[in-house]
Amino acid sequence: MTRVEPKFCERCGHALVQREVEENHTRPVCPACGFIVYRNPPTAAGVIAERADGKIALVLRGENPGKGLWGLPSGFMEIDETLEQTAQRECLEETGLTVEIGALLGVWSFHHAPKGSSGVLVVYTARVIAGEPRAGSDSVQVKFYALDEIHDEQLAFSTHREALQQWKQKTRAAK
Ligand SMILES: [Zn+2]
Question: I want to staple 62 with a disulfide (CB 3.0 to 4.6 A). Which of 74, 105, 112, 140 is the partner?
Fold first, then answer.
């Protein structure tokens, strides 16, 4: 999905123009009312959803980006949520599993230059407390993997690869 620059002012409807409003920052500006469009990266949250046997839930993605590859249950934050609520909701929607959110694993920012998209992903550790795995929104399959069964090339996103690397290191250090 390519991000399209807004063309009209959301305040007064006038056509926007590109203008250098700060040094090195060209932004869409409304010449009629002065409104400036600031485009800030969206925030997403996800979980390492661990079952009692130490295996974690991954979802097979049915939609692009990353169609046919695996990922952590994750998604974008809604306006009325906390990050923990986002992580919990996305996990339930994509896997059918209810999780209890644990410690913060880490925060990763991403930037895809060709698409002009960027964002921030916050990953929590979590414990599966209820539910049976079933595919849901964006996912076509849910599967529990042992840590040594997960390989980088199966994963859709570099942020998920890095989060899983960190989780592996933590888990090994704890043994
Ligand atoms: Zn305007």
Answer: 140
- List the structure tokens of 110: 């991403």
Please give the torsion angle defined by the CA atoms of residues 79, 84, 87 and 89, in that order, rounded to the nearest 10 degrees.
-70
Instruction: Show Cβ contacts of residue 22 under 8 Å, excluding neighbours closer than 6 positions.
Output: none
User: Which residues are in the CB-under-5-Å shell of ion ligand 1?
Assistant: 9, 11-12, 14, 30, 32-33, 35
Looking at the whole model, is its pTM more than 0.85?
yes
Instruction: Evaluate whether 57 touches 34 at the Cβ level (below 8 Å).
Output: no
Distance 10 CA to ligand 1 centre (A): 7
Q: Which CATH number fits domain 1-39: 1.10.357, 3.30.460, 2.20.70, 1.20.144?
A: 2.20.70
pLDDT tens column, 63-102:
888 899 999 999 999 999 999 999 999 999 999 999 999 9
Second-level CATH architecture of 43-174: Alpha-Beta Complex (3.90)
CB 128 within 8 A of CB 66: no
